[in-house]
User: Fold these one by one.
Assistant:
Number 1:
Amino acid sequence: MEITKICCIGAGYVGGPTMAVIAQKCPHLTITVVDLNQERIDAWNDENTDNIPIFEPGLSAVVAETRGKNLFFSNAVEKAIEEAQIIFISVNTPTKTYGKGKGMAADLKYIELCARQIAKVAKDNKIVVEKSTLPVRTAEAIKSILDNTGNGVQFQILSNPEFLAEGTAISDLLHPDRILIGGDQTAEGQKAIQALTDIYANWVPRDKILTTNVWSSELSKLTANAFLAQRISSINALTELCEKTGADINEVARAIGMDSRIGPKFLKASVGFGGSCFKKDILNLVYIAKSYGLNETAAYWEQVIIMNDHQKKRFADKIVKTLYNTVAGKKISFLGWAFKKNTNDTRESAAIYIADDLINEQAAVCVYDPKVNQKKILSDLDYLETRSSQENAANVQSFDNPFEACQGAHAVAVLTEWEEFAHYDWKKIYDAMQKPAFVFDGRNILNKKEMQKIGFVYHGIGS
Ligand code: NAD
Ligand code: UGA
């Protein structure tokens, strides 16, 4: 089968950037990214590429270079499926909020919808690629739907999980550590693997393109996220002990990270990891293990989430305790709302949970984030359903300027590791705050000694 056209279902944080990079590196291919969400598609098609729906360093330039040439964003889902030889499924796979597996299992309803739509529309053989993160053995369900509801055409299903991290998506896509492709061990399966390998080989060295069976590929994605999150929970699990004993977590991380077996990456202590995937993927892993009766395996991985929840809670508690056990009526200013720097994504951000706890204590929360606006902040809080939208709106205010956000505050909490925060004129912020002026550095990005010299009462994480 000659590959000329690709369709990607899902124009989100993965579908958009991934397809933009494929389009840039494969000018001989035509790529259409489709989505049911008209607003999102319109934003991807905005004349000014600075207004595309996702902020990612370097992304708008790649979109400007390719869009309208060989990269298209559309809501004509069926047409794009029909014309393509390869269809990537890149839709969301959130945690189920109902029924069996509620709060743990992955909700596969969007995946199933895609499979049914592909089956209905396809009039010739297609390669269907799982790009979304899926429970191990999902390909079996997709295949069953395709084979039983299709028009008699052949489908090959590949698992090709995405490992990009937000904030560095373009560079991760351009220089991936590896590309993982799982496929059937049959001759047809191997041909499909080859077709996808040939696409990536346009810019990724062949020795970095790893092929496995489908189940190993599906499980490797969940495992990679579980290991990464586990490292953060492991270092965070020691922060409380550092605070009790006078050890400094930054020094401990440096000391252990120099052991080449441990390595220095992903050892930054923090207020807790956020993002759309770590929590949902680990919960999914836990659910799968439990469903096979593997209770010790499930409990082992669940602890990573328990530790992360504890870290967020303990941060909010520490603010209250330090501010003389009451924050009622006090202004607490947040620097950062996004779940990490260089993204406008706020899903599962620690800031949401800390704000929620502080509002429960009747604090007035003021927020500055360079990429997140008031509407998003309020919708994140409303999503928790702790209180009414009106109450959230009455207790949280966002500012376009960090100095205004901190004006008159009793405490500042640094919740995202945006680099600009470390370069502010902190003396100016100090002068405009209530005294004593507290700073809670949830990312350890400020210089403790300098902050203390200015006059701040400084609290880092484990330092
Ligand atoms: P997202 O929510 O940003 O985007 C998903 C898009 O799919 C949405 O715009 C939604 O409207 C669309 N969609 C859902 N059902 C559809 C349908 N039937 N037809 C057309 N469009 C449909 O999600 P995301 O962050 O891009 O994540 C997608 C998948 O990739 C998830 O499984 C996630 O676990 C995985 N993943 C995400 C990241 C990341 O950094 N965000 C990294 C690696 C893997
Ligand atoms: C993560 C993985 O890194 C990607 O490989 C994966 O593809 C993706 O999940 C996914 O499947 O969605 P992402 O969540 O975008 O990527 O960002 P990370 O850089 O992993 O950061 C996650 C969270 O951990 C952030 O809140 C970050 O601030 C926090 N973190 C990270 C720490 O607290 N300490 C660290 O040392 C590293």
Number 2:
Amino acid sequence: MSVNIKKIGVLTSGGDSPGMNAAIRAVVRTCAFHNIECTGIYRGYQGMIEGDFKEMGPRSVNNIINKGGTILKSARSKEFMTPEGRKKAYDNLVKHKIDAFVVIGGNGSFTGGLLFNKEYGFPVIGIPGTIDNDIYGTSHTLGYDTALNTVVDVIDKIRDTASSHNRLFFVEVMGRDAGHIALNAGIGAGAEEILIPEEDMGLDRLLESLRKSKASGKSSSIVVIAEGDKIGKSAFELKDYVDQNMPEYDVRVSILGHMQRGGSPSCFDRVLASRLGVKAVETLLEGNSNYMVGLIRDEVVLTPLENAVKGKTHVDKELIRVSDIVSI
Ligand code: F6P
């Protein structure tokens, strides 16, 4: 392994997700394993600009593998998007003798890392962390699996009350630009309909489907909506629309919100975080930079950061068909 890198910085940036702590732990301990130093950078790029650094060793990450959130805190830094902000960040990294960094986050965090690398030639590796699973170059982002389990758990509970009162529930889940959570958790929770940004279902088809559902003998229904769905209406507006057009339905709305981002990571996320954390450090030590480490067909692979940022993820259309079939 290369001897040029003696100290690696690690930060979490953007929206937090379960598994980030497990990834921090893996990065810190892989550094220790290879006898190099590791510095925790607090509050994402904002902490890099302000010099909010702390040296970390294997014992600084005890008992965090099971914890949601991020011990390093997270932020979305506007200042880092300016050349002046990045200059301050660079000066701090040099002052602390940091030779490379691992950024755990989503697209915005990777874009910041790329810009920084272009300006200062600073080695950067990204680990995909977001519950939305909307990053190109990996089948799973950190936190996605945990969020799916959280959502399924909650919808199971909603179903209990929905069926007791013969009600229709609109349940809004996160996913600003992508329907991965809605589609997968929707199937897992047995939703009658799933509305996602990738498919514009249209209001008429929604009503049609609800009518069919009622006619088939179902007394309660769950419709899962991704936050970024393009049907053009919020969950509350959809409720109003159904109230007006199908008064036979007693409709309620549940917006799951930020509870989806919290909680103890699933075993899948912990193992993924550990694998990606080890690879991130080792690939830096091999002299690589500007890559994202991700999972494809259960193999840890490198994707150029630029592709990860520019590429688009797609929902599996077959899942839409499956959902249509199993929800009749
Ligand atoms: O990117 C993850 C995400 O959870 C999105 O699904 C959601 O739209 C957004 O973060 C919310 O961000 P914030 O916590 O800044 O409100």
